[in-house]
Write a structure and sequence with these properties.
By secondary structure, this protein is an alpha/beta fold. The protein has helices at residues 20-29, 38-46, 54-58, 73-80, 86-94, 122-132, 146-156, 161-189, 195-206, 272-285, 311-321, 323-326, 339-347, 363-370, 425-438, 464-475, 494-501, 516-525, and strands spanning 9-14, 33-36, 52-53, 102-106, 138-140, 231-236, 248-252, 263-266, 292-298, 301-308, 330-333, 353-356, 375-378, 390-393, 400-403, 416-417, 446-450, 453-458, 483-486, 506-509, 529-532. 36% of the residues lie in helices and 18% in strands.
Length: 540
């Protein structure tokens, strides 16, 4: 990056004026000339620095309600010219165009206020032009880079090739994310099938693809035709799933994620699995309905979950669900941890991580003193926000699966009692709690619960009978008189027999098996109630 003749020249056109006066002052001090669009020119001029308005520089007024400001050969010729190309230099001279050495641009806030008039045209055009010609032109799209660039200009008189290339990469990522957000807005605001969609579907059928059966209540048009995904690294983690793997947390570019609001009060650095389990535990703790909740997660699955009138009791019951698995697990609670709950945690097995909305005075110090290797996280309030889509890599590096989020909040009013015996109010409460926990357990999943505690959790099994046996063994009779929840239908009556043997008074399951009549008859034979939800909750 170097001027051909005369002083170096910077073009400034920013919506976000953060730091722009300080940048302009630094450039002027170094002998740079400044050109700026109207709003930026007013800001810089008001600070007492010399600046030329773009309209005066090009000799063309702002047009079409500010839609045309910088789209001019004198601007883009000055940015795009290859200084090493003699033909380019001759054309610049013939047309009276001076080179521009630094482009400082940020864009209209489309994501904050989406609409046609906040789609920036001139800004991205200048950014992409400068980034393309980064061998000769610096480009700044982030105020955080202003001071480092000034420092390099002061010390070296120019930007290094490494710095110019890094800024160009950041600029292209910035415009890519911007265009992606616009495409996403168009997608979200025009969810109807188009002739192109129909043509694509027809092409798939001609290629031998089977016909697509849409989910109930949804159409193919509900699925986005294109998903723009632009992520920035937010945090480097201790390691990945295993110590030999690297790991990091990413978030959508320009956005803040839930974990950005986390404050870590103690313990070692976070790892990939710490965040996986902390997220799973936090979601479940806030999905259990009214009451004070405690959840313990191990390897992405809950091994304890309880709701009680006080937090210490909820934690103690969650721990008692499966004390062996709780060792080295992740604990999440939905209320501020008080001294009594902290005492219960200190008395129990070591946890890798505790996440809570807050800690009473002295609790952090007490937990840290007795559990030095436990990470203590303070989390912002749960937003209840669900992603528009769930996306998962197929592992090939090229293919992804996309689906709409699962409906985790159940409404028992939509459930159907299919047995002769009606569940009591207490059994309905147990059934709802068990179903909520079951939705957060890997399939095949069976949960046995009573009085707000999941006493037996069987998950990740290849068949439902084994999942039920595992849940029954862990419950060890503690769920007798309570509920049994299954994330998928029971294909055979033996599963109902296993639930009854475990002491379940009510079974909640999706229904929909070809053997439903036999399964219902088995429940009637054992005098237990059974509820069909009409919707399964597989989680893989």
């Amino acid at each position: 990056m170097a001027a051909m003749d005369g002083p170096p020249r910077a073009l400034v056109s920013v919506y976000d004026k953060t730091g722009v006066v300080e940048l302009a002052a630094g450039l002027v001090e170094l002998g740079w000339e400044l050109i700026a669009s109207a709003g930026s020119a007013r800001t810089i001029g008001a600070a007492g620095m010399p600046v030329v308005d773009v309209a005066d520089y090009t000799g063309s007024p702002t047009m079409l309600g500010h839609r045309v400001v910088t789209l001019h050969p004198r601007i883009h010729g000055g940015i795009l010219a290859d200084r090493d190309d003699l033909d380019h230099r001759a054309e610049l001279e013939a047309n009276g165009i001076e080179v521009i050495d630094l482009v400082v641009v940020n864009l209209y806030p489309f994501e904050a206020s989406p609409g046609i008039e906040t789609i920036d045209i001139g800004g991205p055009t200048m950014v992409r032009a400068a980034a393309k010609n980064h061998a000769h032109v610096g480009v700044l799209v982030d105020p955080a880079d202003y001071e480092p660039v000034l420092a390099e200009l002061r010390s070296a008189g120019r930007l290094s090739d490494t710095a110019s290339r890094r800024l160009a990469q950041k600029a292209f990522a910035h415009t890519a994310a911007y265009e992606s957000s616009i495409a996403g807005w168009f997608e979200a605001t025009s969810r109807t099938a188009t002739p192109l969609d129909e043509a694509a579907a027809a092409a798939g059928r001609l290629a031998g693809a089977p016909p697509v059966e849409s989910a109930p209540g949804r159409s193919d048009a509900d699925l986005p035709s294109v998903i723009g995904l632009e992520l920035e690294r937010a945090e480097v983690l201790r390691y990945g799933e295993n110590p030999h793997q690297q790991g990091a947390r990413y978030r959508p570019r320009g956005a803040s994620g839930f974990f950005d609001g986390i404050v870590q009060h103690g313990g070692p650095a976070l790892s990939y699995l710490n965040l996986m389990d902390a997220g799973a535990a936090w979601r479940l703790a806030h999905a259990l309905g009214d009451g004070l909740a405690a959840v313990i997660v191990k390897h992405a699955n809950p091994c304890g979950a309880s709701v009680a009138g006080d937090l210490a009791a909820a934690y103690s019951r969650a721990f008692d669900c499966d004390p062996r698995s709780a060792f080295g697990g992740v604990v999440a609670v939905n209320a501020v941890i008080d001294a009594t709950t902290a005492d219960a945690m200190v008395a129990a097995a070591q946890a890798d991580l505790i996440i809570a909305p807050g800690y009473e005075d002295g609790v952090i110090e007490r937990l840290a003193a007795r559990r030095a290797n436990t990470r203590l996280l303070e989390a912002p309030p749960d937003s209840g926000h669900e992603p528009a889509w769930e996306l998962r890599s197929l592992g090939s590096g090229d293919d992804f699966l996309v689906q709409s989020p699962r409906r985790l909040e159940a409404d028992p009013a939509d459930w159907q009692v299919v047995t002769a015996r009606q569940p009591t109010d207490a059994e309905m409460t147990d059934a709802l709690f068990a179903w909520r926990v079951c939705a957060h357990v890997s399939s095949n999943a069976v949960v046995l619960a009573r009085d707000g505690t999941a006493w037996g959790i069987g998950g990740g099994q290849q068949n439902r009978v084994e999942a039920g046996r595992l849940a029954s063994a862990k419950a060890a009779g503690r769920a007798a008189g309570g509920a049994c929840a299954s994330d998928g239908f029971y294909p055979f009556a033996d599963g109902i027999g296993a639930a009854a043997d475990a002491g379940a008074a009510v079974v909640v399951q999706p229904g929909g098996s070809v053997n439903d009549a036999k399964v219902i008859a088995a429940a009637d034979d054992r005098n237990i109630s059974m509820l069909f939800t009409g919707e399964r909750q597989f989680r893989h």
